[in-house]
Amino acid sequence: MTNCQSICLVPHAAYPLPGGGGLAVDCAPQRGGLALHYRLTADLTGLRLPDPAHPVEPDRLWAHSCFELFLARSGQPDYREYNFSPSGQWAGYAFSACRERQADWLPPAPELDWRIQANCLELTAWLPGAALPAGTSNLQLGLAAVLELADGRLSYWALHHPCERPDFHHRGGFTLTLEPP
Fold first, then answer.
1. How far is CA 141 from the centre of its chain?
2. Suppose 108 and one of 50, 88, 130, 167 were both cysteines; which one would form an S-S bond, judging by CB atoms 3.0 to 4.6 Å apart?
3. Is 124 buried (19+), middle (13-18) or exposed (0-12) by CB count in 10 A?
């Protein structure tokens, strides 16, 4: 697979991050799976970060600050989604087509390491091979993030925003392609 370094995500034009900031993601195949490193540089005091002492419903992680990953195989309608919260919570989903969730899929657990410093929020994550969609065609990634502002508004970040409104499930946003080994 191709090694990917420092891919910059961009905020949706209608949902910027006041005060600016940057969000980069490094990704690479590793140990039969996929390694990711998200790095947000911004004034973190302007963000509402989830508190580990007050977990939220896993299906609602996207409604708060979280980093997201969408994975699909080229030419296949099915895809996977992972949400990673700074609280340490995570959720994984399989879809047979756009937003058609497969209820019987049990997501393999990722390895997560969060670091929060003055103006930097970092996540190092590793997904095992079983978390990736089956197949041998190219792996297409949609890298994204939701940032909850202190006042409750949301800022949406992605590699590419193919729609007028944020929609991370839209395949037009799965713009990073990794070749099979």
1. 9
2. 130
3. middle
Considering Cα of 28, then 101, then 148, then 48, what sign does the dihedral take?
negative
Summarised one tens digit per residue, pLDDT across range 83-102 is: 999 999 999 999 999 999 99
Residue 155 near residue 15, CB atoms below 8 Å: yes
pTM higher than 0.85 for the full model? yes
CATH number of the domain within which 96 lies? 2.60.40.1190
Report whether 141 contacts 178 (CB < 8 A).
yes
Residue in the block written with tokens 């034009």: 13
Burial of 142 (0-12, 13-18, 19+ CB in 10 A): buried
Cβ(3)–Cβ(19) below 8 Å: no
Query: pLDDT tier at 178 (50, 70, 90 boundaries)?
Result: confident
Question: Domain total for the chain?
Answer: 1
- Structural domain range at position 106: 4-49+56-178
Please provide the size of the chain in residues.
181
Structure token pair of residue 98: 């756009």
Query: In angstroms, rounded to a whole number, what is the distance separating the alpha carbons of residues 107 and 92?
Result: 5
* pLDDT of 53 above 70: yes
User: How far apart (Å, rounded) are the C-alpha atoms in residues 153 and 133?
Assistant: 33
Integer-rounded Cα Rg, in Å, for the chain is 15
